[in-house]
Design a protein that fits this description.
The chain is built from 16 helices and no strands. It is mainly α. The chain folds into 2 domains: 215 residues, Alpha Horseshoe (Serine Threonine Protein Phosphatase 5, Tetratricopeptide repeat), CATH 1.25.40.10; 149 residues, Alpha Horseshoe (Serine Threonine Protein Phosphatase 5, Tetratricopeptide repeat), CATH 1.25.40.
């Protein structure tokens, strides 16, 4: 093909192709792929998928609700009875655990979250007690530790129950409301990454960019290596029109690549996928900075990591790689890449087909 043949592609950052569905596709991927949003398993789940209630065997029977005859129970009366008990003992974890069990049977997620959060707050208040004058610092510390150990199973049950409410909520606004209650009640939670992922997805669905960025940066302040926060901040900033945003996307993408360590011997599927998405975002950011030559190695690495793992993310990486090749007039390479992307159903299939048509037209003209 004669070297003077040229296709007119974007040269300004604002002209780099952006598909509105890509961010939501990326955000939903974090949960749908199972990379971060993993429901609790093991000792805190019963065979039906609910969080187990520790130490409350026979609870329903004690309240006049036969354990084997739930259909004849008046669960609302049982809940009311527990609420009256909580008036005089608001920090009693046994009562709160029991209330969560009843609320779960009623499928009342709001109540389940409410009692769980109150339980988390009660557990955290153990360490905030005032030291009695007659106790030494060492004896007081020992007492606090003993109280925490005695209540740990209840705390973990409540934490899992609250997380299940978040994971099971389909409405983004309600989900985010639950997350904002969960986070202070269960600091340093074992579900921190999953909850952070759900928060970022929720805010993406709500199209609340400023709140998403604020939440993500607060998350990174507490945990600088949070992959969900790094990835979604990178993807949010890359399409933010404010000056300096693309540079921030580059920084977050590079940090995500370092944290994921996809080439480490112990790297699992989740880390490799995260690295692939980070490389794809980094390549896209370089394209927006008119660094197309530098974008190509990043997009090639991304496609290698994502191929066979996630079709949609792979297609996005290939589409952007094809665009980069075409912009540099590497027509044959663009054609090969776009032909593959155009075969994958999803948000970039049509853009890939359209770009492939332009590449084929330019190729024919250059013969």
């Amino acid at each position: 093909m004669p070297s003077q043949t040229e296709i007119r592609f974007a040269h300004k950052a604002s002209e780099v192709p952006h598909e509105p569905k890509l961010l939501s596709t990326f955000a939903n991927y974090l949960c749908l792929s199972g990379a971060f949003c993993v429901r609790p398993t093991g000792k805190n789940r019963d065979p039906g998928g609910h969080a187990r209630r520790p130490g409350i065997t026979g609870h329903l029977k004690r309240r006049g609700c036969p354990e084997e005859s739930d259909h004849v129970c008046d669960l609302q009366k049982s809940l009311d009875y527990g609420d009256k008990a909580l008036v005089s003992a608001p920090h009693n974890l046994d009562i709160l655990v029991s209330q969560v069990g009843v609320a779960q049977q009623m499928k009342n997620n709001a109540k389940t979250m409410d009692y769980s959060v109150r339980g988390g707050e009660a557990y955290n208040s153990i360490g905030k007690q005032t030291k009695p004058a007659e106790l030494s610092d060492q004896d007081f510390a020992s007492r606090i530790e003993e109280e925490k150990n005695a209540s740990k199973n209840s705390y973990e049950f409540l934490e899992a129950a609250a997380y299940n409410v978040i994971a099971g909520e389909n409405d983004a606004k309600s989900r985010m409301s639950y997350i904002e209650r969960f986070t202070p009640a269960f600091p340093n939670s074992r579900f921190e990454e999953q909850v952070t992922s759900y928060a970022m997805v929720s805010l993406s669905e709500l199209k609340d960019t400023s709140r998403l960025i604020s939440f993500g940066e607060k998350t990174l302040a507490a945990n600088p290596n949070s992959l969900p926060a790094l990835l979604l901040l990178a993807n949010t900033y890359v399409d933010d029109p404010k000056p300096g945003s693309v540079g921030k996307s580059v920084t977050y993408s590079q940090k995500a690549i370092l944290v994921a360590k996809a080439d480490a011997p112990d790297a699992d599927r989740s880390r490799k996928l995260s690295a692939g998405m980070a490389h794809a975002t980094l390549g896209y950011a370089y394209m927006k900075q008119d660094k197309t030559t530098g974008a190509i190695p990043e997009l090639k690495t991304a496609s290698t990591l994502l191929k066979g793992q996630d079709d949609q993310q792979y297609a996005i990486a290939m589409y952007r790689l094809g665009f980069a090749y075409a912009k540099l007039n590497r027509i044959n390479e663009a054609r090969d890449v776009l032909s593959e992307a155009a075969r994958i159903s999803g948000p970039v299939q049509q853009p890939s087909q359209d770009l492939l048509a332009k590449v084929n037209a330019a190729r024919a003209k250059g013969k």
